[in-house]
Amino acid sequence: MSDFRQVTDDFSVSPQISLDDLPAAAAQGFRLVINNRPDGEQPGQPSSAEVEAAARAAGLDYMHIPVVGQPTPDQVEANRLAIAEAEGPVLAFCRSGTRSIVTWSLGQALSGERPRGELVSLGRGAGYDLSSVLGG
């Protein structure tokens, strides 16, 4: 079972999930899974198509917004909109969870939804240091 790390009531991040984690994510109330990992980044990781099929079979919505390094403004906005339009809690994942929480936090900061200091604190609570990305 992967390490789902709650950031807010409606958003959690995780290191790489397995296909077997998707029914558990649905049982925990997640409605949308966002895959921030590009296909083929590491041998043996499930492809986006495999994760999507397993997510949909578990009754989850799915988005693939692959991020390499720092997210682009378009990736930040696509991620922010997907979360805003989700019909319930969102689980985002990448290799370690860092790209997922960074992409989310940049969207929150740029849209003015949360102040930078709060985002750094939320990141810390989930085990991620966002201070170098957001300041504060």
TrEMBL record:
Signal peptide stretch: none
Family matches, as SUPFAM superfamilies: (Phosphotyrosine protein) phosphatases II (SSF52799)
Domain of life of the native organism: Bacteria
Domain Beta-lactamase hydrolase-like protein phosphatase-like: 3-110
Listed GO MF terms: hydrolase activity
One Pfam family matching this protein: BLH_phosphatase
The protein, known as: TIGR01244 family phosphatase
Source species: Caulobacter mirabilis
